[in-house]
Specification:
Length: about 350
């Protein structure tokens, strides 16, 4: 039986990935601060070991007898990366480099770094893994630095793979409505209005969360390691490069079909010239993987979950808002401690 250590395991991707790994018979060590709650991880059998720990201080012993590491931990979007700039460098870059080095030192066989297509920034042409990058935010720059420091650790004994993920969509127990397709679907379903940035012809790449988890597991299991070691793979599908207007139409039509209510698209802003399309040929040509789910699938799935009440939009589903709230509470607790208790304000 193989043992996988997953960091950021209680997050949007982690809480879908961990049950999939358990179902496939892996033993999982799930490391997270659990900012979004521990209950998001549903144990399957007794093969899940939950460790509430900050990855910046991860103990080397935890990596002993671990076969694989999937290092999901991050402050996970652009606005949070700007607001919590220093923490983003520490977690997304330094902590992941440290974990990769510790993993190599402990004899871990494979390490996967989930990076992001956002490091391409905005470009005129269709970009692939060999295209120049153009990281425009702290989040994107920290991902790029992590890639640059971690890829050279690859050798015959330590397989390193970088996955540059498209923007993810779909249902997860730690739901995120700050991701484009999820947020658009919620807004149209809840209010009947769908704000879209003009002029709608701009392209962005997307991928469903279940597909992300499935490709991570395939990369753990892919036997011709020479083909993937030290490699970067864009994760998504060529046909999942959507134009924003096209995406708005998809969301509006499905919400109308499923609820019988009208959805109005409301255009705003000046035409957004920042368009980029990504090629996903390399991952298909190397390991034969393609995503199975498209935007229509994700929109229907989310509406179904909303209608049955499995998911709601709360402050926890907007990453920046939740971290800002936690910081506020942390300050209040510190103040209470300083005065020796809530009532001792002398
Ligand atoms: N979701 C996307 O669209 C997307 C796109 C591209 C790349 N990615 C990458 O995938 C990874 C996971 O993203 P996600 O959407 O699941 O994010 P998420 O915010 O839902 O999950 C991140 C998890 O990390 C935990 N965490 C944060 N700081 C920690 C620390 N110091 N120690 C321990 N745990 C800590 C949080 O509690 C959270 O559970 C990230 O590396 C992200 O950059 C995501």
């Amino acid at each position: 039986m193989k043992r996988v250590l997953v960091t950021g395991a209680g997050g949007y991707i982690g809480s879908v990935l961990v049950p999939k790994l358990l179902q496939k018979g892996y033993e999982v060590i799930a490391v997270d601060r659990f900012f979004f709650g521990k209950e998001k991880l549903k144990p399957v059998g007794d093969m899940l070991n939950i460790i509430q720990e900050d990855t910046r201080f991860l103990k080397a012993e935890l990596l002993r007898e671990v076969d694989f590491v999937i290092d999901l931990v991050a402050i996970s979007n652009d606005p949070s990366g700007e607001r919590f700039n220093e923490a983003t460098w520490q977690i997304n870059f330094q902590s992941r480099v440290r974990t990769a080095k510790l993993a190599k030192g402990q004899g871990v066989k494979r390490y996967i770094l989930p990076s992001s297509c956002s490091i391409y920034g905005f470009q005129e042409t269709i970009v692939d893994e060999s295209s120049p990058t153009n990281p425009l935010t702290t989040y994107a720059r920290a991902n790029e630095r992590a890639e640059q420091e971690i890829l050279p650790l690859a050798d015959k004994e330590f397989i390193v793979v970088v996955t540059r993920l498209s923007t993810v969509f779909g249902y997860s127990p730690r739901m995120r409505f700050d991701l484009a397709i999820n947020g658009m679907t919620y807004g149209a379903w809840k209010t009947g209005k769908l704000p879209l940035m003009r002029d709608g012809t701009q392209y962005r790449p997307f991928v469903h969360v279940e597909d992300v988890c499935e490709v991570m597991i395939e990369l753990l299991e892919f036997s011709d390691t020479q083909k993937i070691n030290g490699q970067i793979f864009n994760v998504g599908g060529n046909e999942l490069n959507y134009q924003i207007g096209q995406l708005g139409q998809i969301v509006a039509h499905i919400v109308e079909e499923l609820t019988g209510r009208r959805v109005e698209i409301e255009w705003y802003g000046d035409p957004d010239r920042r368009s980029y399309r990504v090629s996903f040929n390399k991952i298909y040509e190397t390991i034969g993987w393609k995503p199975k789910r498209n935007a229509e699938y994700g929109v229907r799935e989310i509406i179904h979950k909303l209608e049955e009440g499995t998911v709601e939009k709360t402050i926890q589903t907007i990453t920046l808002d939740w971290y800002t709230e936690l910081e506020k509470w942390y300050k209040i607790i510190k103040e209470v401690e300083m005065y020796g208790g809530i009532l001792n304000v002398s």
